[in-house]
Amino acid sequence: MVRVESTSEPISEPISGARVEDQRSDSELLTASAAEPGVFTELYRRHAEDLLRYFARRTLDPESAAELTAETFAQAFASRTTYRDTGANGVAWIYGVARHQLGRFFRSGRVDRAARRRLGIPERDLPPEDFERIEDLVDFAPIRGAIAEALATLREDHRDALRLRVIEQRSYPEVARALSCTEENARQRVSRGLRRLALVLQEKGLQPAAEKES
Fold first, then answer.
1. Could you give the CA distance from residue 92 to residue 25 in angstroms, rounded to a whole number?
2. What is the sign, positive or negative, of the torsion defined by CA atoms of 87, 89, 95, 97?
3. pLDDT tens digits, residue range 77-115?
4. How far is CA 30 from the centre of its chain?
5. Which of 103, 117, 169 is nearest to 141 (CA)?
6. What is the pTM of this model?
7. Exposure string for 146-183, b = 16+ CB within 10 A, e = fewer
8. b/e map of 64-100 (b: 16 or more CB within 10 Å)?
């Protein structure tokens, strides 16, 4: 799972003992977190996976989705004292932060790191098992035709990697063998190709995901 790592005001698991589920609403937790930073952990537990899926289905790229999830929670944590309960579900405020981060991603083609830098959160490589797990969150079936058309806009090495992985649905060992490269390099090519592909689809007005956020 993508995690917001320790900061000067830690977002961390309890040190010992069984976790007691916090019964407070998201709005109540956000309000309380201004004075009790530790309670923000419960918001992460509740919504990190759904937010990761939200980003994965829009960026198509596991690395971008993981980074956007981390940056969103870091920004939400850093800005938590500005939250005001207006009667709406508190998670809507977090998704507002997420939409802002996603918009910046599509405008610049990269994930912002400002909030993570301010909180001192180090960069992390995405382990192969997490890469493939996040990839599984993307529903490629409805957009496979659009992907096939958009492949022509990509550079050759990225195009070949995506054709093998997304269109032909081959495993990474098979992709690596076909491209005469390492599995790590195959994942990098797929990741960069998917990131560019999401930008191309966005430019064409195609929305990779249609589900509503919580």
1. 12
2. positive
3. 999 999 998 887 889 999 999 999 999 998 888 899 999
4. 21
5. 169
6. 0.77
7. ebeebbeebeeebbbbbbbbbeeebebeebbebeebee
8. bbbbbbbbbbbbbbbebeebeeeeeebbebbbebbee
Nearest CA to 208 out of 160, 146, 158 is that of 146
> Is residue 31 within 8 Å of residue 40, measured between CB atoms?
no
pLDDT tens column, 2-50: 444 433 344 444 444 556 678 899 999 999 999 999 999 999 999 999 9
Dihedral, CA of residue 27, residue 30, residue 65 and residue 97, to nearest 10:
80
